[in-house]
Specification:
369 residues; alpha/beta; Isopropylmalate Dehydrogenase; two-stranded antiparallel sheet; 12 helices; globular; binds nicotinamide-adenine-dinucleotide; binds 3-isopropylmalic acid; binds manganese (II) ion; manganese
């Protein structure tokens, strides 16, 4: 049987730096675990714009549709701020998500014991934290129309974006959340603003409908998203699975990142419907961006990107045990006190580089055999 195929789109800024460490891990699985992948690479974001004049070439889009999974680094950067909106790096990423129909973005926030002291919150608030944010990824205000910037007759301008959700868009992401909850602690909290938005009312009603008709065994609660933001930092361990829309999910997951210690720790899986081979359409991407402030300095934490590959092992390749092996290797390295600069507390210490962190994780993988 052919090896499973991976398309690597490293992107911009720290994207290629963290992806270089993931490539080492992929090779390790081929060499040491008999898990070989057919890996190809291509351009996305500013890197694609520099070569093709667009942030995602049609040929790259076509490749992404064919492979078993896409691994994405990060896109964007100040160099591209001047570009027309339609060709900005972020448009490349949004096109991938939309055309692959990756509607469920799984953003787990787990606090490794070794980092519980490091979070900006008190240790007992975050120690042992394990929550899963399921962010709707292909609709809502990111894609709704009408949108744009128009000039009024009096010369003033109006910026417009529209939040649109349909029954089916809400129901399918709700099902993803309930399915995950059944394999975890059986609790879903749905977040919207049904108190001010009609789309929020629909969201609440449809999530409730899916619950009542298909998942009555799962505990469901509803919360306004602003309260949700507050509760996430007040008592995050009250949550198991959170399901929310595209924009709220973007903001709440960055917030959840700090519960784990650093944005450099948070992975994600963007999943769509099953393909003919039974695997879900999938792209794996760290939650963080291209971090222009540290790009090119070897300071980036590669763990979010490596954990995203662990999610690929689990959700695309049915290799849950190998995913756990990789997560454990990361845990070991952190427990040994190995830290990239973003994980340094006020007490200081000597941070390791991106490459050194990757090498330490490889050493821990070797030790796990
Ligand atoms: P960012 O996530 O790039 O950076 C925010 C802060 O977190 C910075 O201080 C950065 O140094 C730090 N950080 C992020 N990842 C880190 C890592 N792995 N290790 C250590 N520190 C890390 O967000 P931003 O600065 O708001 O955005 C920069 C660019 O990235 C923008 O163009 C934005 O659109 C883009 N972006 C892309 C993605 C993506 O590709 N998925 C996600 C978010 C932002
Ligand atoms: C993310 C990013 C993206 C988003 C941007 C870069 C398009 O912030 O993946 O969280 O807003 O979805
Ligand atoms: Mn974001």
């Amino acid at each position: 049987m052919a090896n499973p195929s991976l398309l690597i789109l490293a992107g911009d800024g720290i994207g290629p730096e963290v992806m270089a460490e993931v490539k080492k891990i992929i090779s390790w699985y081929g060499d040491k675990r008999g898990l070989a992948f057919d890996v190809s690479e291509d351009l996305v974001g500013g890197a694609a714009y520099d070569v093709h004049g667009v942030p995602l070439a049609d040929a790259t889009m076509a490749k992404a549709q064919e492979v078993d999974a896409v691994l994405l680094g990060a896109v964007g950067g100040p160099k591209y701020d001047v570009l027309d909106f339609s060709v900005k790096p972020e448009r490349g990423l949004l096109r991938l998500r939309k055309e692959m129909d990756l509607y469920a973005n799984l953003r787990p926030a787990q606090c490794f014991d070794a980092l519980a002291d490091f979070s900006s919150l008190k240790k007992d608030v975050v120690a042992g934290l394990d929550i899963m944010i399921v962010r709707e990824l292909t609709s809502g205000v990111y894609f709704g129309t009408p949108r744009g910037i128009t000039t009024q007759p009096d010369g003033s301008r109006v910026g417009i974006n529209t939040q649109v959700y349909t029954t089916e868009e809400i129901r399918r992401v709700a099902r993803s959340a309930f399915e995950l909850a059944r394999r975890r602690n059986n609790k879903v909290c749905s977040m919207e603003k049904a108190n001010v938005m009609e789309s929020g009312i629909l969201w609440r009603e449809e999530v409730q409908w899916v619950h009542d008709n298909e998942y009555p065994d799962v505990e469901l609660s509803h919360m306004y998203a602003d309260n949700g933001a507050m509760q996430l930092v007040r008592r995050p361990k009250q949550f198991d699975v959170i399901v929310t829309d595209n924009l709220f999910g973007d903001v709440l997951s960055d917030c959840a990142a700090m519960l784990t210690g650093s944005l450099g720790m948070l992975p994600s899986a963007s999943l769509g419907a099953p393909m003919a081979n039974g695997r879900p359409k999938a792209m794996y991407e760290p939650v963080h961006g291209s971090a222009p402030d540290i790009a090119g300095q070897g300071k980036a934490n590669p763990i979010a990107c490596i954990l995203s590959f662990a999610m690929a092992l689990r959700y695309s390749f049915d290799q849950g045990d190998e995913a756990t092996r990789l997560e454990k290797a990361i845990e070991t390295v952190l427990a040994d006190g190995v830290r990239t600069a973003d994980l340094m507390g006020p007490e200081g210490g000597q941070p390791v580089s991106t490459t050194e962190m990757g090498d330490k994780i490889l050493a821990a993988l070797n030790a796990s055999l």
